[in-house]
Design a protein that fits this description.
heterodimer, A: 150 residues, mainly beta, Alpha-Beta Plaits, SH3 type barrels, 2 domains, five-stranded antiparallel sheet, four-stranded antiparallel sheet, B: 303 residues, alpha/beta, Rossmann fold, five-stranded parallel sheet, four-stranded parallel sheet, 9 helices, 9 strands, binds zinc ion
C-alpha cells in the first residue's frame, strides 16, 4: 500500500491521488473543500515516480461524481480517486476528460457571448493532452493554460 | 420539419454549397421572384454595417418579403439593457426569418437556440460571416467555372481575417485546392488552419511578400492590414506597403485571374488596378444579392 495512504487513514471517504503538486490548492478550491466540516488532510511535494512531485488530498465522508470528477480531470488529468470504505480501498477510479464539457469552464474569449450574457458554456474537447476546448458558441479554442473552472 | 439556420459556413454540406451556387445563378438571370410574398423578415443589426444590410434588404425586397428591424441598437430597447435572449424571443414571435449582425462572438449560435424561426448570421464579431463566404464562392465559380482545382492566394491579415478562414474551410471540401498565404509573420494564418489542411492532405505555401509565383493564381483574395493589429508600430511601418497590389504586378498573371476583396478597401489595392478586367471586387459585391436570395430561399425551403 502507498505510504502516503497509511498516514492518518480515513474510515470512509475519498483519497484523490496523483495530483500535480502545483495544482493541489486549485483542486481544493474547485471542489469547495475549504467549506467542508469533514476531516480533510492533504500533502504536497510528495515523491512520485510518474509526476516527480505530487499532491494528495484525503476527504472523509465524501464521494465525488459527475461534474466534480470532470473538474478534477481538467486540472489534474492523471489523478485517481480511491474510494474508501471501512479503511479499505474498495474502488480505484482514473479521472477522464469527457468529449463535451458543459458549464464548468469559462471561455477564454472576452468577446464571447457566454462572457457577456447569462449563457451556459459548452465546449467540444478537441484534444485531451494538452487540453484544447472548442467553444460551441464563439468557436475559439481555450488552451490548457487558459482553462478557468467556474 | 427541423428549423434550418446558417450560423457558420461549416453548417452547410458540399451538396448545399453547390445547390446555393445553382440557385444564385437563377436569381442572377431572374432577380425578381415573389417567393417571400406574405413573409416578414427581421434584420437585426446590433452594430451598423450598411453594406451588408443593404445587400440583405435588396435580396429580401427582390423576393417580395417585408422587412422589420433596426440598424443600430442605440436606437432600440437593447441600450435599455434588454438581453439578446429577450430580443430574440420577442422578434421570433413576429418574423418568419431573422437576419442578425452582432458584435459579440457566438451571439448568432446562441440566438439560434432561442429562436423559433431560422437565423442567418450576418456577422458575429470576428467569428463568422457565412453569407460573405458563399458570395465569394459564387464569384469564384462564376469566373472560373469550377470550385475544384482552385489555386488561391490569400493576402494581408490572415490571422484575424474571418473571411479568409471561412473561405479556406469551404474550399477545402472541393477537389485539389492549393492555398498560398502571403502575410507578415505577425498576421500569418493560424496554426489550427494549417494543421487542418495538413490533416486533409491539402497543399499550402507561405510567403512573406508578393513574388513571381502569383503567375499561377486563379484567385487573389486581398484583405486589409490594419494598424491596430500590431503591438509594435515599427513593425506596421515596415510592412504597410508590402501587401499592396498594383497593376504592374499583374502583367505575368493568368488571363483568367480574378482579384477579390470583401470590401471596404483602404489602400491595399491600388486604384490603378480598378480598370484592369482582372479586378472583380465590385462585381463580387453585386453577386452578394443573388447569393443571399439563394441562401434565404434555401433556409426557408422556398425552392
Ligand atoms: Zn466562446
Amino acid at each position: 500500500m502507498d505510504k502516503a495512504l497509511q498516514v492518518s487513514a480515513i474510515k470512509e471517504g475519498t483519497v484523490i491521488d496523483h495530483l500535480p503538486a502545483e495544482r493541489l490548492f486549485d483542486v481544493i478550491n474547485i471542489l469547495g473543500l475549504y467549506n467542508s466540516t469533514d476531516m480533510i488532510t492533504f500533502g504536497t511535494n510528495l515523491d512520485s515516480k510518474r509526476l516527480g512531485k505530487k499532491g494528495i488530498i484525503k476527504v472523509a465522508n465524501r464521494h465525488f461524481e459527475g461534474k466534480e470528477i470532470d473538474k478534477i480531470a481538467l486540472i489534474a488529468p492523471h489523478a485517481n480517486l480511491n474510494i474508501i470504505k471501512n479503511y479499505e480501498v474498495v474502488e480505484k477510479r482514473l479521472v477522464e476528460i469527457p468529449e463535451e464539457i458543459i458549464s464548468i469552464v469559462k471561455c477564454f474569449n472576452p468577446k464571447c457571448i457566454t462572457n457577456n450574457e447569462n449563457v451556459e458554456t459548452r465546449f467540444q474537447v478537441i484534444c485531451k493532452s494538452p487540453i484544447e476546448l472548442k467553444c460551441f458558441f464563439c468557436e475559439k479554442i481555450t488552451h490548457e493554460k487558459e482553462v478557468v473552472i467556474t | 420539419m427541423q428549423k434550418r439556420d446558417l450560423i457558420s459556413i461549416t453548417d452547410f454540406s458540399k451538396a448545399e454549397y453547390l445547390q446555393i451556387m445553382e440557385m444564385a445563378k437563377g436569381f442572377e438571370k431572374n432577380p425578381n421572384q415573389n417567393l417571400l410574398k406574405g413573409k416578414v423578415v427581421a434584420t437585426l443589426f446590433f452594430e451598423p454595417s450598411t453594406r451588408t444590410r443593404l445587400s440583405f434588404e435588396t435580396a429580401i425586397n427582390r423576393l417580395g418579403g417585408k422587412i422589420i428591424g433596426f440598424t443600430d441598437s442605440s436606437s432600440s430597447s437593447v441600450t435599455k439593457g434588454e438581453t439578446l435572449h429577450d430580443t430574440i424571443r420577442m422578434v421570433s414571435n413576429y418574423a418568419d426569418l431573422i437576419v442578425m449582425r452582432h458584435p459579440l462572438e457566438g451571439s448568432a449560435r446562441y440566438a439560434s437556440q432561442i429562436s423559433k424561426v431560422p437565423i442567418i448570421n450576418a456577422g458575429d464579431g470576428a467569428n463568422q460571416h457565412p453569407t460573405q463566404t458563399l458570395l465569394d464562392m459564387y464569384s469564384i465559380i462564376k469566373t472560373q467555372g469550377r470550385l475544384d482545382n482552385i489555386n488561391i492566394f490569400m493576402v494581408g491579415d490572415l490571422k484575424y481575417g474571418r473571411t479568409v478562414h471561412s473561405l479556406l474551410m469551404a474550399l477545402s471540401v472541393f477537389e485539389n485546392p492549393i492555398f498560398n498565404f502571403i502575410a507578415p509573420p505577425e498576421l500569418a494564418m493560424p496554426d489550427e488552419y494549417k494543421r487542418f489542411l495538413t490533416s486533409k492532405g491539402i497543399r499550402y505555401f507561405e510567403h512573406r511578400e508578393f513574388t513571381g509565383i502569383i503567375s499561377e493564381a486563379d484567385i487573389i483574395y486581398m484583405t486589409r492590414v490594419q494598424k491596430e493589429r500590431f503591438t509594435d508600430p515599427i513593425e506596421y511601418e515596415k510592412v504597410r506597403n508590402v501587401y499592396i497590389l498594383r497593376n504592374k504586378m499583374l502583367q505575368q498573371t493568368k488571363p483568367t485571374l480574378k482579384i477579390l476583396h470583401p470590401l471596404p478597401r483602404v489602400n491595399e489595392i491600388n486604384e490603378d488596378v480598378d480598370s484592369n478586367p482582372k479586378a472583380y471586387y465590385f462585381t463580387q459585391a453585386e453577386n452578394g444579392v443573388y447569393t443571399r436570395q439563394a441562401i434565404i430561399s434555401h433556409i426557408m425551403g422556398l425552392i
